[in-house]
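example protein:
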Amino acid sequence: MYPLKFKPIFKTVVWGGEKIAPFKGIETDQKHIGESWELSGVSGNESVVAEGPLAGKTIAELVREYKGALIGEKVYAATGDEFPLLIKFIDAKSDLSIQVHPNDELAAVRHNGSKGKTEMWYVVAADPGAHLLAGLKEAITPEEYARRVANDTITDVLADHPVKAGDVFFLPAGRIHAICGGCFIAEIQQTSDITYRIYDYGRLGLDGKPRQLHTELAKDAIDYKVYPEYRTDYQPVKNKEVEVVSCKYFTTSVYQLDAPVAKDLSGIDSFMVVMCVAGSGSLSCHSERSEESLPLRQGETVLIPASATGVTFTPSAEGLTLVTSYIK
């Protein structure tokens, strides 16, 4: 197999902006694009291969056909025919709703065997003064949580974080969070579209009606523990892989390149997703039988199959910043 690019799936939402299409170099008449689903196995929103001999095939069809050769034998044994990650770019012109996601156990019971949602954010860009919400800054009980939602004071107990490009936040299932206006985010998460909307500032949806809240469902899903730090601390190193998040659902690294860097994939029994978040260059994917190269530019996402034994990232003169994810 060879590295694959997919057609983006644009989502129009009430809080969406106008940055995604220019970022990806795409012309579109759609307004308020809040999300570009780069790689999705979510039923009804399955990504389609954009080019090459497999153009037109969905990610679900590819997983069923190639199984472990595409996503890894160990990964396929654990997740079956469902591609296990959902990859997005998110442009928040205004604040998103405050929300939380259930863990696997709760989601399975409540949502017909579905998976929960653990996710992470990499801040691609941020307007001056941009911030986001992640975690609690003071302890509350489930009962106080419900009262604060009802009397519009829930934001008073949430940790508020100023952000800049390159910041990383890990969001395990159960952590209250919200992307706020002015943030442009790369999001890596479990393949799940289960979201409990806790609070939405009394905002109306695109249909002019109040957006549904899931106050009671969220009550049992929230992790009420206060943690000392919610931002992921890491130090970028030029022309080196820097691992920023590692959990059972994904391992994510950041590359900031002005020279070629090779990554040995022979010991990784997993696919790798590569998101180009800045700059341009190329990607050369090696396997036992062949080598395939692709140009790479800001806004593109590439799926490297598990059958690859290595990859080389080569930046152009402007440099190249990548966010990569695989499953250990």
